[in-house]
Write a structure and sequence with these properties.
Layout lengths: L6 H24 L6 H14 L3 E2 L11 E5 L2 E3 L13 E10 L2 E10 L5 H19 L7 H14 L3 E2 L5 E3 L6 E5 L16 E4 L2 E3 L5 E3 L6 E3 L5 E3 L2 E5 L4 E3 L4 H6 L3 H6 L4 H9 L1
Antiparallel strand pairs: 1-4, 2-4, 3-12, 4-5, 6-10, 7-8, 7-9, 9-14, 10-13, 11-12, 14-15
Helix pairs in contact: 1-2, 3-4, 3-7
The structure holds 2-amino-4-trifluoromethylsulfanyl-butyric acid (MF3) and cobalt (II) ion.
């Protein structure tokens, strides 16, 4: 069963997800050559503690850290370490938190210094594919409409979608129903309804879609060694679209229309801007 959340539950989800977005923005601003992924993890854990929140990933099936830090050909679930970021790397930072009984989850992929044109294009297309997926969300749409929109955009630009990992419902657990693949044909799967809360998270490879998990039992990497990127937002389904619960600060501020949309409980401005750019 897919749960539809009440207005007060959605406000609690909005609080924890806003915290996740704020910490991710700080981590993003901290990324530069020489910083280690353990440094980022320590900062994330400290910020969550200060906010009386708990890391959602730490201890989840034995995962050992607050963030997942996945560099270059690492797709997701990279374990923070003493590895220092180098100029030209790309790093996906994924973080989940629990506050007041509810969960938040979001990810961004960030350039370290100057990156190649191909890496920059991968980041842009992957983030756009997330917004294409979000734009497919509204009450009455079907779950597979999301993946179909993501896949269409990614493959039109010559990249590929990872099949082994999916987005998910989120609420009083990190992973709830439904599973949300980033590929497929439209018109299949459960129908979306107002108040459902979804974490949508395309993982996109520059080369072939296949991935494998390293000997640490967590780190997923591309089989062909190509670069991979990952973006994730948690959103609540509304009548006409969705409200992003993990907006980047700049997404909130950049749009003069957002205030108006927010009074309707809709964060569509960010979606529309990404689609028109
Ligand atoms: N955003 C990912 C997910 O929702 C991260 C999970 S990491 C884990 O599946 F450690 F919690 F598995
Ligand atoms: Co997730």
């Amino acid at each position: 069963m897919i749960v539809c959340r009440s207005a007060s539950e959605i406000e609690r989800l909005a609080r924890v997800n806003a915290l996740v977005a704020r910490v991710l923005a700080e981590l993003k601003a901290t990324v530069r050559p020489g910083v280690t992924t353990a440094d980022l993890d320590a900062l994330a854990e400290h910020r969550l503690k200060q906010a009386n929140a708990a890391p959602a990933f730490k201890g989840y099936h034995g995962y050992p850290a607050t963030i997942c830090a996945s560099i270059n050909e690492q797709v997701v679930h990279g374990i923070p370490s003493k590895r220092a970021l180098a100029n030209g790397d790309i790093i996906s930072i994924d973080m989940g938190a629990q506050l007041d009984g509810f969960f938040g989850d979001s990810a961004v992929t960030v350039a370290v210094g100057d990156i190649s044109d191909e890496a920059a294009r991968l980041l842009a297309i992957t983030e756009e594919s997330l917004y294409r997926g979000l734009a497919a969300v509204h009450a009455g749409a079907r779950v597979s409409d999301i993946g179909a929109a993501v896949q269409q955009h990614v493959e039109a630009h010559g990249f590929s979608v990872v099949r082994e990992f999916v987005g998910h419902g989120i609420g009083v657990k990190l992973h709830e129903e439904p599973q949300i693949p980033n590929y497929g044909t439209p018109g299949h799967g459960p129908r979306l309804a107002e108040g459902m809360v979804l974490a949508i998270e395309p993982m996109v490879n520059a080369g072939k879609p296949a991935v494998k998990v390293l000997g640490d039992g967590w780190t997923a990497v591309t089989k062909d060694g190509s670069l991979s990127a990952h973006f994730e937002h948690t959103v609540v389904v509304t009548r006409s679209g969705c409200r992003i619960l993990t907006p980047a600060q700049e997404e909130e501020e950049r749009s003069p229309k957002n205030e108006l949309l927010r009074t309707r409980g809709v964060h569509e401005a960010a979606v529309l801007r990404h689609l028109s750019s």
